[in-house]
Design a protein that fits this description.
There is one protein chain. This protein is of the alpha+beta class. The chain has one domain. Helices cover 54% and strands 14% of the residues. The chain has five helices and five strands. A five-stranded antiparallel sheet has the order 3-2-1-5-4. Helix 1 packs antiparallel against helix 3.
């Protein structure tokens, strides 16, 4: 369970998701990393968002403003609360607590992925009708998971180390509960 808590704490050190935009006119792909509390990239945070927002403007997508994304404010508090509850689970050392913690983490993770999907759907479909470039019927939602061509961009979207740490935290908490159950 202790390793599970450490796995969850990885969300504060590593990005949880990466979206990469590749195109012939950009010698280096634009990589946007989504952290539990911020959005950044290989470039300075402002530079990557400025470049992506310039591209988004042409097709009518909203500007990505980290300050206007409430999840970047409250997700860290949820992670802190789950780390705290994980430490309590270690102190209590009961099978039901480990399983409960893992179940809550699973539900929160599923809700987080769903929220991310809704966020991307809104950005990719709610387009400004006055956009300079209009392609009838075209949306610009990157894939939730995988790869896709969007106009002249090749877009990839994959989890990163923060998400792997979260997934490991759930697996390790279930394992801790199972080992305690087998011991009984």
């Amino acid at each position: 369970m202790g390793l599970g808590v450490i796995g969850l704490a990885m969300v504060f050190l590593f990005p949880i998701w990466r979206i990469t935009l590749e195109a012939a006119q950009f010698p280096d792909p634009l990589k946007m990393y989504i952290y539990v509390d911020k959005i950044g990239g290989d470039e300075e945070e402002g530079d990557i968002l400025q470049n992506i927002n310039i591209l988004n403007h042409y097709v009518g997508m909203k500007y990505i403003k980290p300050d206007s994304i409430p999840e970047l404010v409250y997700f860290p508090y949820i992670a802190y609360a789950m780390i705290f509850l994980g430490i309590i689970a270690i102190a209590v050392n009961r099978m039901w607590y480990y399983f409960s913690w893992a179940g809550i983490m699973s539900i929160l993770s599923a809700l987080g992925i769903y929220d991310f999907y809704l966020w991307m759907y809104d950005y990719g479909h709610d387009l400004d009708p006055k956009a300079p470039i209009k392609v009838p019927g075209q949306s610009y939602m990157p894939p939730l998971f995988g790869e896709q061509d969007l106009l002249n961009f090749y877009v990839t979207s994959y989890p990163q180390l923060g998400t792997i740490g979260m997934a490991l935290s759930v697996i390790l908490a279930f394992l801790a509960g199972w080992l305690l159950w087998k011991k009984i």
